[in-house]
Design goal:
The protein has about 700 residues and is α+β, with helices and mostly antiparallel strands. The chain has helices at about 1-5, 25-55, 60-90, 90-115, 115-130, 135-150, 155-185, 205-215, 240-250, 250-265, 275-290, 295-300, 310-340, 350-365, 370-375, 380-395, 485-500, 525-530, 535-540, 555-560, 565-585, 595-605, 625, 635-655, 660-675, 680-690, 695-705; strands spanning about 190, 235, 395-400, 415-420, 425-435, 445-450, 455, 460, 465-470.
């Protein structure tokens, strides 16, 4: 056993993983071996607990929760590494290893989650030790009991068997869904060779498309390497390629082509996710009914701030009615803009025209060309500004890792250390910033590499976060020059990271984002986005990559003025997604005789200003709810935005230019929202920071609605 653990880095179970040494072959050998060990440990724990229960010996926290956490942490560490690599270094071999081991991981989770002995021990601990447990311990205990109920601890016979089979199938379907989206995204591309096909595209975009063509082995008609001046240029569906093309291309036919390809991803042939969506929704409904709930949404909301679907729908309706009027006005403004340019598109704007004419109107209205601002947002300068802001707000220092030999999974990945004001190390984080369409799933996310803990030997385990983005990569000529939206995304994910890294909770089950209700988990991330348009923050980080000159004052003012530009359509879009999600998980079933897509199109009648086209199969790439943790929870973005806007308004109230008061308020935010994590309810944490319960006033003001 010792030799095997020394041989396989996946069995290390602690510290930073040796990513590049973890192979698909090792996964296939290590995970079964680890599960064998852990199954034995579960059996031993059950035996000890059963003996104590039978002898009527009072159970303590250390008897139940500590050994249970150690078991769960071992599998979280090892399988967490596999899941992480599957997301950032995807390959056919890794996929196969992941898919092969996933059912056994689910079975092990069900075994622990359905252990009657462990469940009885938790109930006994809650009943007999309540007076000896603190608020954090009681919250953890309640969450663990609820989790076990949701994992089927009370089930027997055929119900239990059905539930377990459904669990395995749901995990498998989620993985298939995600792989289909990744494969569909990288499978489609278009090679452009003519000048009329690239009209309107900025030089930087042409350079990216030429580099993509070079990587694909494309050659010009003269058999020369692609260049941004002469092409060929290859455009794809990954965001650094798709977004600028749909925004700047003067060629309406090609905009239509790429738009239709993007919204129809994973809806055809071998990669078709439509039947998978129906099966996922059906299985989730079955699971909720087996557990005694009416639907998946009802089950999901038992562990969120929102009490029920009515409460969710009321919030979304408030935002829908406020944003619909504004969105209709914004659409008319786009039509008027097209008319002023004497464009035939003005007669009937289509979905592939919205980004294009929005950019034209933005330039016209504010003289703001976001593409031309990229040179002022090179990644190193943006990071420096972000780190300085964190120093000002939270009294921390962020530096490149002291560890010269820190393991990484790609050459672009960097490790950073987070230091407290006394110089002591608080945490670390990996930053993986750039898009890799062939091997890295889209979007941006934060995940846990290591959680705050204390080992059995008494050693402190410091938190380590994964911060993953998919922003524009550097070129041969320039560093990664970020769009303002990419800057906001980086700040967003860093907000999640701060809550993970600055936690002071000593119980790992409630440290960082653990045990935080899902509709409050976006509070720190959306809070950090607000600072992107804070004058001192923006002017401090927006430095030209060549000259180091700060962004011109007038450009900052334009960005600030454009803050609420098209906010009606943006809000309506999020509301559309959120209502679709909550209704699919509370109302849809096969007996209705209509597809999930038809439900979505019905909802679109009151939540969009342009009807979805027939090719639009957005649900087929809606990974948040079909391959992520947002099922019946997508509304969380808007729910938490109420909290984050109100939190930021605390800084506005003391004066954003008052350095001392901003610092004092920032310290209070660190000591509450970022520090307390899941140790208390989000309502209590927010009230500890703000001195009252949240209000929607700040969000409506910030949104310009």
């Amino acid at each position: 056993m010792i030799n095997k653990q020394e041989r396989y880095p996946l069995l290390k179970g602690e510290g930073l993983p040796n990513y590049k040494e973890i192979t698909p072959e090792e996964i296939k050998e290590s995970i079964p071996f680890l599960l064998g060990q852990l199954n034995q440990k579960v059996d031993e724990l059950e035996k000890i607990l059963e003996e104590k229960i039978n002898k009527n010996i009072s159970l303590r926290w250390a008897d139940v929760m500590v050994p249970l956490h150690l078991i769960e942490e071992k599998i979280r560490w090892s399988w967490g590494v596999v899941s992480h690599l599957n997301g950032v270094c995807n390959s056919p071999e890794l996929r196969e290893a992941y898919a092969e081991q996933q059912p056994e991981i689910i079975r092990f989770g069900n075994k622990v989650g359905q252990s009657r002995t462990i469940y009885k021990s938790l109930l006994s601990l809650k009943e007999k030790e309540r007076d000896n447990l603190n608020e954090t311990q009681l919250r953890i205990l309640e969450a663990e009991i609820t989790s076990m109920n949701h994992r089927g601890v009370g089930l027997n016979g055929s119900q239990k068997n059905s539930f377990n089979l459904n669990s395995e199938r749901l995990a498998e379907l989620s993985n298939i869904f995600s792989n289909h989206v990744l494969d569909a995204t990288k499978a489609w591309s278009l090679v452009l060779t003519k000048e009329e096909e690239i009209l309107g595209l900025p030089s930087r975009v042409l350079e990216i498309l030429a580099n993509t063509a070079k990587e694909a082995g494309d050659k010009s008609q003269d058999d020369l390497e692609p260049t941004k001046e002469k092409g060929p240029w290859r455009v794809g569906l990954d965001m650094p390629s798709y977004i600028p093309f749909i925004t700047y291309s003067d060629n309406r036919h090609l905009r239509e082509l790429i738009y239709k390809a993007h919204v129809s991803r994973a809806s055809e042939g071998l990669l078709d996710n439509r039947k998978i969506i129906e099966e996922i929704l059906t299985l989730r409904a079955d699971q909720s009914k087996i557990l005694g709930y009416n639907n998946w949404a009802e089950l999901s909301l038992t562990r969120k701030m929102a009490q029920n679907t009515t409460e969710v729908e009321n919030l979304l309706e408030e935002l829908r009615s406020a944003s619909l009027k504004v969105a209709k006005k914004e659409l008319q403004e786009l039509k008027d803009c097209a008319l002023r340019h004497k464009s035939s598109e003005a007669d009937k704007l289509e979905p592939w025209d919205i980004s294009y004419w929005s950019e034209k109107l933005r330039v016209e209205k504010f003289s703001l060309n976001q593409e031309k601002l990229r040179p002022w947002f090179p990644l190193p300068k943006v990071l420096n500004g972000l780190f300085k802001l964190c120093g000002k707000l939270f009294e921390i220092q962020i530096i490149p890792s002291k560890s010269d030999e820190a393991p990484t999974w790609h050459k672009d990945v960097k490790l950073f250390d987070v230091l407290d004001k006394d110089g002591s190390t608080l945490a670390s984080f990996y930053l993986d910033p750039y898009s890799r369409a062939a091997t890295k799933r889209g979007g941006a996310w934060m995940d846990e590499c290591l959680g705050k803990d204390i080992s059995l030997e008494g050693d402190k385990v410091l938190p380590v976060a994964y911060l993953i983005c998919n922003q524009t990569p550097p070129t041969e000529e320039a560093p990664s020059l970020m769009s303002f939206e990419e800057v906001e995304t980086l700040f967003h994910e860093f907000g999640h990271g701060l809550q993970h890294m600055l936690t002071t909770v000593d119980y790992p089950q409630a440290a960082g984002i653990n045990n935080v209700e899902w509709d409050a988990v976006e509070l720190p991330s959306q809070f950090m986005e607000n600072w992107c348009l804070d004058r001192s923050t923006l002017m401090g980080m927006a430095k030209h990559w060549k000259t180091d000159e700060p962004i011109p004052e007038e450009e900052f003012k334009k960005l600030k003025q454009s803050r609420t530009f098209n906010s009606g359509m943006a809000t309506l879009r999020q509301v559309h997604f959120a209502i679709t999600d909550i209704r699919l998980h509370s109302q849809w079933n096969k007996d209705l005789g209509i597809s999930p897509d038809q439900i979505r199109r019905e909802i679109a009648k009151s939540t969009t200003v342009i009807d979805p086209i027939k090719e639009d199969q957005f649900l087929c790439s809606f990974s948040h709810i079909f391959a992520g943790g947002y099922a019946a929870g997508y509304y969380s973005y808007k729910w938490a935005e109420v909290l984050s806007s109100d939190a930021f308004s605390a800084f506005e109230e003391v004066g954003l230019d008052d350095v001392q008061k901003v610092s004092e308020t920032g310290r209070r935010f660190r000591d509450t929202v970022l520090s307390l994590g899941g140790s208390r309810s989000p309502s209590k944490v927010f009230e500890a920071f703000r001195g009252r319960q949240p209000s929607t006033k700040a969000l409506i003001r910030h949104s310009g609605l």
